[in-house]
Each structure stands twice: as structure tokens, then as C-alpha cells.
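Pasting as-is:
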Amino acid sequence: PSPTAVGEGGVAAATGVRATDAGLSASGLRSALQAVLPEYLVPSAVVVLDALPLTPHGKVDRQALPAPESAHVGQADAYVAPRTASETLLAGIWAAVLHREQVSVDATFFDLGGHSLLATQVIARVRETFQVELPLRTLFDPETLTIAGLAAHIDAMRWVAQGNQAQASTNEEDWEAGEL
């Protein structure tokens, strides 16, 4: 079995993989992949087909591939509403970038259909909204894959930055007063 195509919209196809022969359901396949792959490499949706549609030239016909059922793609088990101002702002950013009405704070970015190109949009909006310097790799970190985790990380960064600013102004005042 070897991967044959990764197309637009993150569509990936693999030939020779027969999940039903191995006794795996779509969710079972995702679980098995989660055990061996980093979260951002696990597909957000799995569609089981008897065979891949082919063009007359024997290549995968991407246009004939069925779309994953939108009701099941990237849905968290239960919606958890934002609890803090940071979570609310992040939920708005994720919902806008991922074209969703609402986003659970416990769902991971990649389970919701996010990918590296969308991650760059999220990071740019987070930098603008929160005025923090956040590297792209932050969204790939297991501790910050969810809105809850990312919000906690951003809040900690802002708290440290505010503490440093307060310390710097105190040092300047002490310097001017001749106490340093």
C-alpha cells in the first residue's frame, strides 16, 4: 500500500488499503492512525470506498471522489462553549478561518479540518488580535492544539509580558530616583 495523491482541500487517497478487510471502521482507522502519527497528520475525515474512482488513464479521479459527510467531519463529541475572553476571541478566529458557525474549545484545530495553510491564517489573526508574537509551530504543539490550550498559552505569555513591562518601568523609576 502506498499513498497516491494529496490534492486540493487536503484530500488524500491511499491505494491498497482495505480498512474493511482489516476489520476497521472509519473511526477505528482514525484511532489507529492517532496512535502512531502526530495529531496534525491524522486525517480529519475518512471515507471508506470499495475502490478509488479512476480516469481513463488509470489515475485517481479526484472530481469523482465523494465529499465527506459534513455532519461528521471534525465534529467534537460535545460542544464546549468558551469560558474566558481569550477563548471567545480564539473561537471567533477559528470559526472564521475554518468556515464554521461555532467551535468547541476542546476540539483540535486539525480535527476541525485545519491544515498548515489555514494555521498560518490563524496565527496571523492571533498576532493581530492579542498583540503577541506566536510562532506557527504553536498550533502543532499537543498542549496548544485546542482553543482551551492555546488560550491558556496566550494568557500566560501576556501575563509574563505585563510583568516584564511593570518591572521595566519600576527599574526606570528607580534609576531616575538614583536607587539603582
